[in-house]
Amino acid sequence: MIKKSLIGLAVLTATVLSSTASAEDSKVVGVRPYVSFKAGAGFQDLDARCHDETSGTTKTVYDCGLDHKTVFNMRPAIGLQFAGESYVGGRVEVEWYNTNRAKFINDVLIPAGTDEETGEQLYAPGYERNKIQSQAVMFNTYADFYTSELFTPYVGLGLGWAKHSNKYSLYSYATEDGSKYTLRSGNTTTNRLAASASAGTAINFNEHFALDLGATYYYLGTIKNPTTEYKQVLNSFNLDAGLRVSF
């Protein structure tokens, strides 16, 4: 899902860039503050990366669990808009990204001691249930393309800090009859570096109000369980709509 979403985002970006050739100047020249609020759907992937084998300093890693969930997100922001005489302007903003809690279930391998003869690490099959709520403070920069009086397409990049609240339960099937049992459950908070790439367009009602339609890919960092040797990577592809008010 994420790979297909990134391809779609790249196509949208190319369309935005190619549309500037026949532009009309509709901008207000100067530096203007603005506030915005967007909301929409986030299509999240939680990818568990498990350690298959360790030999010296070499570690083989493979994907042993992947789950997808759709979340609701809100994205209020405050920023500055810069417009000169050219068809290309810019914006910088601070955004607060917030989602509801989503439940992921991933198949994992759980360390289960070592082989008595070889000393190799042994793993038992199991799964982990994660209930994750994410929020982030993002610092975004955008390039605006003044293609017409009505439409202002844009592309953007962001960097920030994400905080993940996780209610997890770890289960193992390492019993003779194959039934599961709970190894551990608890709550964790993880802080990680986050990054984003976006493309969209503003539909201008007048020089102060615009409808903002966009697509954004978020890399939200890793979430590590304190009882296992694997990490989980959280990504999200968002489709949002909202209002931007310029002063």
UniProtKB/TrEMBL annotation:
The keyword Metal-binding does not apply. It comes from Ruminobacter amylophilus. Residues 1-23 form the signal peptide. InterPro entries: Beta-barrel_OMP, OMP/PagP_B-barrel. The keyword Signal applies. Keywords: Signal. Residues 10-243 form the Outer membrane protein beta-barrel domain. It holds the Pfam family OMP_b-brl. It comes from the Bacteria. This is Outer membrane protein beta-barrel domain-containing protein.
